[in-house]
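Students often ask what a holo structure prediction actually looks like on paper. The answer is less mysterious than it sounds. You provide the chain, you provide the ligand, and the output is a string of discrete structure tokens encoding the 3D arrangement of the protein together with adenosine-5'-diphosphate.
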Amino acid sequence: MPLTAEQITAAMRTVKDPDIGKDLVTLGMLKDVSVAGDDVTVGIELTTPACPMKDKIRGDTEAAIAAAARSAGAAPPRVHVNFTADVRKANDKVKDGHNPLPLVRNVIAVGAGKGGVGKSTVSVNLAVGLARFGASVGYLDGDIYGPSGPTMLGLDDVPTAARGSMLLPFEVHGIKAMTIGKLVDPDKALVWRGPMAHGAFKQLATQTEWGALDYLVVDLPPGTGDVPLTLSQLLPLTGAVIVCTPQRVAQDDARRAVRMFEQLGVPILGVVENMSYFIGNDGVTYDIFGRGGAEVMAQVMGLPFLGRLPIHMKLRTNSDEGTPLGNWDADPTLAAELDAICQNTAAQVSMAAMHGRLQMPTISVTG
Ligand code: ADP
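The corresponding structure tokens follow.
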């Protein structure tokens, strides 16, 4: 006798989402079960297409169903796991009670204690990388004092377009992007004062036709200025990613950025260590800035560590040439580090969203 769908569902109650710590049935992630002879097919809906635990969940599912078959005296079934993903929406509440981007499920702010540590590099690659996993992603270059979006995304010759009073985002590299760099002379942006910065950022965020997005990645100006304050009052931030290089002086600045987000009531999703190490042509790894410094800082502060990026010529050339997807073709180590950062960030977002309201919105992506 093959297992029944009920017996399989009961077995799935023993399989936990490793990040969230609850079983898949309770979490509503088991979507269907079908049995055809010795073939058992289960449909599992993940909370992100970039789920880093996919293989573990598949293995645990196969083991749980095999164990159920053994204890029922049934023939060992062939188990097929079909994954889909539905990104959970984080808490809708904003400080003034109104969410101007209700179709955006999660807003991820990317900040850094100071300029030049690779905040824009991480933001762009996080956005493009999440989209490579199958998510719908927006990138907002909110670094109004030094926007690098036009260069990093290759937008120099792309015209801006609007519909009525709304800007249309640039659809490039699998994401929807908007940057202040395409709207004003970047040299003038440098002298903007607080209230103007506040207004410009607000317009950029809310007067862009983003449509429905799983993730909106917001590249913030470095430091602890007005824009993070505006952002946290304007949009429901799921959390902030802090980019830091390994040196001690960079960590001190990063700590200040962490404290600022904490004061604003924005959860910290974790820390990315950029320029962590360098691999020379001789294949030897050089820890130029003292690899692991930002990771230790994250540990000491009790923050998740989201991953590291090496100093890599291709990261710089693909940024300068506006071809971020080329980073995944550059070399397997770099591609794996980029994917890990995207997956770890997505996992933290899922956890943050699950601790808010348990809502299941509409768009599904297969993966
Ligand atoms: P920030 O946004 O913090 O000011 P950027 O992301 O603009 O920093 O990076 C500054 C410069 O350093 C850019 O030219 C970028 O291409 C380069 N860069 C950043 N991270 C790396 C890296 N890991 N390897 C090589 N070049 C990098």
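The chain has two domains: 5-87, 93-358.
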